[in-house]
Amino acid sequence: MPTKSKKSAKAPDKSPAKPSVHTLPAGRVEVRLAGSGGQGLLLAGLVLAEAAGLYDGHQVAMVQSYGPEARGGASKAEVIISDEPIDYPLASRVDLLLALNQEAADTYSWDLSPNAWIMVDGDLVSHPPTSRAVALPFTAAARDQLKKVMVANVISLGAIAELTGLVSKKALERALLARVPKGTEALNKKALAIGAKLARECSAASPSCENRMHTEDF
């Protein structure tokens, strides 16, 4: 008489646990875009704010600051994006920091939230404020692929939208094209696409790029 075979015990999963990575909070997100004068951070902040507010339908507030120098001085734009009225328009626990040079990374990382996204220019920031920082070659890509260093800010916006889902890509493109000089629309659309591609390549290669907050969850 055949006997019933015993079910083998399931072997424990010995594969390494996927590292937990940072995500953006729902409800209110504080963004800081920082670098130096001439890198276009104020324009980038304005485009991000208008994408979120005019085209994605969120509440937004924006504050800009820059040094006395036309070029080379410190520059930053802070954008608050919320699904409720904003009663305090200044950043106090930054959820996403973009730093396009080392000075910005050193100066503007003191009030980050514990799970903040930190994105830096991989060629201009040699010492990110944390090992969790996502380093992408914004300036090098602008110089090598488009021959226009000035669109590194646009490339960074494309990467932000791709990695975080903070604003929709369609809204970002509409806001950008409404702000850039006539005749540069094709250049700026290419810059957004390059930023998105850099982000996708990062996601494929590194767990620090994987988590996203989709706009429908905001």
Notes on the structure:
- There is one protein chain.
- Helix 1 packs across helix 5, helix 3 (138-146) crosses helix 6 and helix 4 (152-164) crosses helix 6 (185-205).
- The chain is an alpha/beta fold.
- It has helices spanning 41-55, 102-107, 138-146, 152-164, 169-177, 185-205, and strands spanning 28-36, 59-66, 74-82, 94-99, 112-121, 134-136.
- The chain has a domain at 28-136 and 165-181: Pyruvate-ferredoxin Oxidoreductase, domain 3 (3-Layer(aba) Sandwich).
- It is globular and about 40 Å long.
- Mean pLDDT is 84; it is low at 1-22 and 211-218.
- Strands 2-3-1-4-5-6 form a six-stranded mixed β-sheet.
- It has six helices and six strands.
- A hairpin with a 7-residue loop joins strand 2 and strand 3.
Key phrases:
6 strands; Pyruvate-ferredoxin Oxidoreductase, domain 3; single chain; disordered N terminus; six-stranded mixed beta sheet; 218 residues; alpha/beta
Poorly predicted runs of 5 or more residues: 1-22, 211-218
CATH H-level name of the domain at 28-136 and 165-181... which superfamily?
Answer: Pyruvate-ferredoxin oxidoreductase, PFOR, domain III
Number of strand segments = 6
Q: What is the N-to-C succession of helices and strands?
A: EHEEEHEEHHHH
The level-1 CATH class of the domain at 28-136 and 165-181: Alpha Beta
Cα(first) to Cα(last) distance is: 63 Å
Q: Which fold does the CATH topology of the domain at 28-136 and 165-181 refer to?
A: Pyruvate-ferredoxin Oxidoreductase, domain 3
Major sheet details:
6 strands, mixed
β content, as a range? 15-25%
Helical fraction equals 25-40%
- What global shape is seen? globular
Secondary structure category: alpha/beta
**Oligomeric state of the chains in view:** single chain
Number of helices, where a helix is a run of at least 4 consecutive DSSP H or I residues: 6
Mean pLDDT, all residues: 84
What is the correct CATH architecture of the domain at 28-136 and 165-181?
3-Layer(aba) Sandwich
Report strand order across the widest sheet. 2-3-1-4-5-6
- Radius of gyration (CA) equals 20 Å
